[in-house]
Design a protein that fits this description.
Blueprint: E1 3-7, H1 11-22, E2 26-30, H2 39-45, E3 49-51, H3 54-60, E4 63-66, E5 85-88, H4 94-97, H5 101-104, H6 110-117, E6 122-125, H7 132-137, E7 149-154, H8 157-170, E8 173-176, H9 212-221
Parallel strand pairs: 1-2, 1-4, 2-3, 4-5, 5-6, 7-8
Antiparallel strand pairs: 6-7
Bound molecules: NADP nicotinamide-adenine-dinucleotide phosphate.
Length: 223
């Protein structure tokens, strides 16, 4: 079992924490405020969960999920994440989350931002393609015919194997796109990013399952 640290415990972080606890993992949650503000979520999750500062969550996780608005990426504590596997869920959405000058002016692509901030961590992009309500409902046991497949990308093969095994335990298959830069194939606005949306219900739960073959087709459309 893995201890998952969370920098950001909102819609995506909180959903992943629920899946993780249900799968038997421990979680260390943090947000931008005092840890006691996570009292309700920790109470709901039970003894496998605790609230902490961002530094403690970074230090305490074997794998650490960063799930904050992109504009807050500089506050992710780099020191305790040195040498660790970090899951990057971030999507750049300037209209709703604010403009990030490094992206707009300095030309740093959004998918490189967190890895550049955490040069000694092994960043794997994952979960950025799935709406949190769908993430909560589409998980299935290994081998289920309607199990969904999520794209991942990152520069370190061992880190991606770790993340794929973790995601498998949470109820999803993974498709490894290769280097972190390949995550542009599932960035906001691409067909793969919208894969789970039901054309009839859009963001309504439960969303639609996307098997590996369909995901590969959608990823191909972005290339
Ligand atoms: N929502 C989705 O379905 C979805 C799907 C895929 C990817 N994403 C991406 O995942 C990221 C998180 O999205 P979300 O919808 O989960 O956002 P959210 O519900 O607004 O949660 C954001 C979390 O980040 C925390 N946070 C903000 N600034 C922080 C800081 N400086 N240090 C530590 N924690 C900080 C917030 O804490 P406070 O409560 O203290 O502010 C909150 O716990 C975004 O980049 C988004 O684009 C979201």
């Amino acid at each position: 079992m893995t201890t998952m640290g969370f920098i950001g415990s909102g819609k995506i972080g909180g959903t992943l924490a629920r899946l993780a606890v249900a799968a038997g993992h421990d979680v260390v949650l943090s947000n931008s405020r005092d840890p006691h503000t996570l009292h309700d979520l920790v109470g709901e999750l039970g003894p496998r969960a605790r609230a902490a500062t961002t530094e403690q969550a970074a230090a305490g996780g074997d794998v650490v999920v960063v799930s904050v608005p992109v504009r807050a990426y500089r506050q992710v504590p780099a020191g305790p994440l040195r040498g660790k596997v970090v899951i990057d869920t971030l999507n750049y959405d300037p209209a709703r989350q604010g403009v990030v000058p490094e992206i707009e002016a300095a030309g740093i692509p959004p998918y490189e931002l967190l890895q550049a901030h955490l040069p000694e961590s092994y960043v794997v992009k994952a979960f950025s393609t799935v709406f949190f309500r769908h993430l909560a409902t589409l998980g299935r046991p290994a081998g289920a015919p309607d199990r969904s497949c999520l794209p991942i990308a990152g520069d370190d093969p061992a880190a991606k194997r770790t993340v794929a095994a973790l995601i498998d335990s949470l109820g999803y298959d993974t498709y490894d796109l290769g280097l972190l830069a390949e995550s542009r194939s599932f960035a906001p606005g691409t067909p793969a990013q919208l894969a789970h949306l039901d054309p009839a219900g859009m963001f309504a739960a439960p969303g639609r399952p996307v098997a590996a073959a369909r995901l590969v087709e959608l990823l191909g459309e972005a290339r």
